[in-house]
Amino acid sequence: MKKPELLAPAGNLEKVNIALAYGADAVYVGCRFFGLRKYSENLSLLDLEKAVNSANKLGKKIYLTLNSFPHNQDLEELTKYLPSLNKIKPHAFIVSDLGVLKLIQENSEIPVHISTQASVLNSDSVNFWQNQGAKRIILAREVSIKEIK
Questions:
Q1: Which of 13, 8, 55 has the alpha carbon at shortest distance from 32?
Q2: Contact between 73 and 30 (Cβ < 8 Å)
Q3: What's the number of CA atoms in the CB half-sphere (13 Å) around residue 71?
Q4: Which contiguous run of DSSP H or E holds residue 45?
Q5: CB 107 within 8 A of CB 82
Q6: List of E strands, 67-142
Q7: What is the average pLDDT value for the chain, to the nearest integer?
Q8: Alpha-carbon distance 110 to 108, whole Å?
Q9: Is the Cβ–Cβ distance between 16 and 54 less than 8 Å?
Q10: What is the pTM of this model?
Q11: What gap in Å lies between CA 75 and CA 93, rounded to an integer?
Q12: pLDDT tens sequence across 10-40
């Protein structure tokens, strides 16, 4: 039986380190841009780099949320950040927007996970995202255990 991954949220570098030290297999974080909670306490690019380095040393993972609801100017801005993110190499991006997915696929080799914000509620949606190249789909909160099976 495959062991499930214990994934924890973390709003800053201290919380990342605590989650990793106390058993999380992976942590999802936001930076000060492009995450749904961009006005919350989030990581700087330097903090993200430190988090990824710490996770790598422990054999764990850092997933970066890029799940905001972007307008055209936001996609232009994300294009400017992707080279820095590609150098840091988080283990995956968590996205909810097709435009962001397309932009990442054109400019990065980092895997993409689909956010719960994409409201994936059924197997047709799962198949769609998989066909678009998503490596993981985080189902909507409204999906029951029975539906998941």
A1: 13
A2: no
A3: 1
A4: helix 45-58
A5: yes
A6: 92-95, 112-114, 136-137
A7: 90
A8: 6
A9: yes
A10: 0.91
A11: 15
A12: 989 999 999 999 999 999 998 867 655 555 5
Q: Between 40 and 123, where is the model more confident?
A: 123
Q: How far apart are alpha carbons 67 and 128 in whole angstroms?
A: 18
The model's confidence at residue 87, banded by pLDDT at 50, 70 and 90, is: very high
For residues 101 and 117, what is the distance between their CA atoms, to the nearest angstrom?
A: 14
- Please tell me the predicted confidence (pLDDT) of residue 71: 78
pLDDT digits (tens, 9 = 90+) for 88-112: 999 999 999 999 999 999 999 999 9
Q: Which residues pair with 114 in a beta bridge?
A: 95, 137
Burial of 5 (0-12, 13-18, 19+ CB in 10 A): exposed
* 43, 29 contact by CB (below 8 A): yes
Alpha carbons 52 and 99: distance in angstroms, whole number? 25
What token pair was written down for 43? 């990581």
Structure tokens at 28: 């999802």
Q: Are 140 and 120 in contact (CB under 8 A)?
A: yes
Pick the closest to residue 36 from 92, 87, 90, 74 (CA basis): 74
